[in-house]
């Protein structure tokens, strides 16, 4: 190929990549349905057995995390979630993980394999509608005692920023 053809090809590839990234980011924001600023109660199957509800599991500050075992970004959040759990253990902070694996058995194996100490529930349509059907994971919602959404993080959250926000809610 002549050098001008190579330059045109590279230019087109770069434009295509930027276009894809722009479109992807734009669609992430559009993938959420309109949700109120509050989390309504929902029930779901606990991967450890039985049913539970948001009202039963929540704390003064609750981090609701949508995750799955097949999601690399979700897996990279696990150490940070464990850090948050340890840092705020004994306080009224709770992590409630919503697992989006294909079935309850896969979800239970995931929880056991990674020794996740917090409550993990299996997703259902009612709960996903309450959370706005984000269409992407990981997503986390920091919720205060009045069930108001304080922050929504799409993708991997910033641990320091989230820690500050949790401390502020727990004061």
Question: Describe it for me?
Answer:
The chain is α/β, with parallel strands linked by helices and 171 residues long. It has two domains: 1-31; 43-170, Glutaredoxin. It has six helices and seven strands, in the order H-E-E-H-E-H-E-H-E-H-E-E-H. The chain has a seven-stranded mixed sheet. Residues 18-31 have low confidence and may be disordered.
Overall strand count: 7
Mean pLDDT, rounded to whole units?
86
Query: Would you list the SSEs in sequence order as H and E?
Result: HEEHEHEHEHEEH
Taking the sheet with the most strands, its summary is: 7 strands, mixed
Contiguous low-pLDDT stretches (5 residues minimum) are 18-31
Structural class: alpha/beta
Q: How many H/I helices?
A: 6
Report how far the terminal alpha carbons are from each other: 65 Å
Q: What is the level 1 CATH name of the largest domain?
A: Alpha Beta
Q: What is the number of independent domains?
A: 2
Classify the helix fraction into a percent range: 40-55%
CATH-derived topology of the largest domain: Glutaredoxin
Architecture of the largest domain, according to CATH? 3-Layer(aba) Sandwich
Strand content: 15-25%
**For the largest beta sheet, what order do the strands appear in spatially?**
2-1-5-4-3-6-7
CATH homologous superfamily placement of the largest domain: Glutaredoxin
The whole-angstrom Rg is 19 Å
């Amino acid at each position: 190929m002549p050098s001008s053809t190579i330059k045109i090809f590279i230019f087109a590839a770069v434009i295509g990549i930027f276009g894809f990234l722009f479109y992807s980011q734009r669609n992430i924001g559009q993938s959420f349905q309109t949700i109120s600023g509050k989390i309504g109660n929902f029930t779901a199957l606990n991967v450890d057995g039985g049913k539970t509800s948001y009202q039963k599991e929540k704390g003064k500050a609750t981090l609701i995390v949508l995750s799955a075992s097949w999601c690399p970004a979700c897996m990279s959040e696990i150490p940070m979630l464990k850090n948050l759990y340890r840092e705020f253990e004994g306080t009224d902070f709770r992590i409630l993980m919503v697992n989006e694996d294909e079935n309850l058995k896969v979800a239970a194996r995931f929880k056991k394999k990674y020794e996740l100490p917090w409550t993990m529930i299996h997703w259902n349509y009612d709960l996903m509608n309450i959370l706005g059907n984000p269409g992407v994971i990981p997503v986390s919602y920091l919720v205060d005692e009045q069930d108001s959404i304080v922050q929504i993080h799409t993708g991997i959250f910033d641990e320091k920023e989230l820690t500050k926000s949790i401390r502020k809610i727990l004061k």
